[in-house]
Specification:
- With 298 residues, this protein is mostly helical.
- 75% of the residues lie in helices and 1% in strands.
- It has twelve helices and two strands; from the N terminus they run αααααααααααββα.
- The chain has a two-stranded antiparallel sheet with strand order 1-2.
- Strand 1 and strand 2 form a beta hairpin.
- Helix 4 runs parallel beside helix 6.
- The longest helix is centred in the N-terminal third of the chain and has 25 residues.
């Protein structure tokens, strides 16, 4: 095993840890890992990430199902709609340049990281509401699935806030339900990519095995580490990787890359500390997709 391969497999544990601890973030780690450490082409990396995240999420469903933390009807409807969107996104990706896909992925990373650092809306500790409205679940599922299939992003850190904000699902239920959705639409997005993209199956198997191991470890640690500490630490890590990816996609000399770096950092600062009416602000489209919340810990 080469050093690069060993490093890729070792770091893949973080993919599973993220899914096990936070209910999302697998693709946000998987794509940069596969592109910049495993040195895969962008589209092959995205396709491989969909396989890794899909299998890891499917395994992660089991403990949540045993604990009764899954809304099956909502999850399956959202998942079916997400599969349609993800398959379409995977097919459309063949017409989009790799640099555009990676840039779009990096932008998604920065918006998601800002939402993670800022915190999501609390849903209270009461009982979960009835199953969510079918039409709304289907529409949101298609939109989130399309993003997932196209750029390999938009897993749990989009699905969980959508489920929590859509019908007020408690976070543990939203996280468990999201894993059902992530698994379904990841496999659909993978099917779309496989029509035009090949995968190194031996590498994918090793990365998936490491991610599954990390997921099981993350599930055991989840109750021992404060959620807000995990979320914000991971969020800042995602900011660093996202800014790096934005800068890497800028052609030309150092001046352009410095300008891209400044622009990316400015966008993050706007998402994090911009004010409107005395409250922290995220632009409307991003807020509606990711959810906006008051700070959870002051």
């Amino acid at each position: 095993m080469t050093v690069g391969l060993a490093l890729t497999v070792g770091l893949a544990v973080l993919i599973g840890l993220s899914l096990g601890l936070l209910g999302g973030g697998g693709s946000i780690l998987a794509v940069p890992l596969l592109v910049y450490v495993a040195d895969l082409p962008a589209k092959e990396a995205i396709a491989t990430s969909l396989l890794v995240v899909g299998v890891t999420s499917a395994v992660g469903v089991l403990p949540h199902a045993r604990a009764g933390r899954i809304r099956w009807r909502t999850g399956l409807l959202f998942g079916v709609a997400g599969m349609v969107g993800a398959y379409a996104g995977g097919r459309l990706a063949v017409f989009v340049p790799a640099a555009v896909l990676l840039t779009g992925f990096a932008v998604m990373m920065l918006a998601t990281a800002a939402a993670m650092i800022r915190g999501r809306r609390a849903t209270g500790g009461g009982p979960a509401p009835p199953e969510l409205p079918v039409l709304r679940v289907l529409v949101d599922g298609v939109v989130v699935g399309l993003v997932t299939g196209l750029v390999g992003a938009g897993g749990g850190f989009l699905v969980v806030p959508v489920l929590a904000l859509l019908g007020g699902l408690p976070m543990p239920v939203a996280v468990g339900t999201s894993l059902v959705v992530i698994a379904m639409k990841s496999f659909a997005g993978l099917a779309g990519y496989l029509s035009n993209t090949s995968i190194d199956w031996s590498l994918a198997a090793m990365v998936t095995a490491a991610a599954v191991a990390g997921s099981l470890a993350g599930a055991r640690l989840a109750g021992r580490v404060p959620e807000v500490v995990l979320r914000r630490t991971f969020g800042w890590f995602v900011v660093v990787v996202g800014v790096f990816m934005v800068v890497q996609q800028v052609p030309g000399g150092s001046a352009l890359r410095i300008a891209a770096l400044a622009g990316a950092l400015g966008a993050v600062a706007l998402l994090l500390v911009g004010r409107r009416g005395g409250r922290a602000w995220i632009p409307g489209p991003v807020r509606r997709a990711l959810g906006r919340a008051p700070r959870a810990d002051g």
